[in-house]
Here is the input.
Amino acid sequence: MIGIELARRGGDGIPGLKVLFITGFAAIALHAKRAEPTNDTRVLSKPFHLKDLVGEVDKILAA
Here is the structure.
């Protein structure tokens, strides 16, 4: 099972589950046919600065 599939299954049991993926391969992971993220999913691509991570977490918590 890939991470996006895990997040999707988790969302089935926990409505409103918010997910942040951190990956070096975002383009590849998200374009797989079975790996379409939900609306409550965000992706942060490596490399990133700590302020970018904090900003994404803030956005997730505010939504």
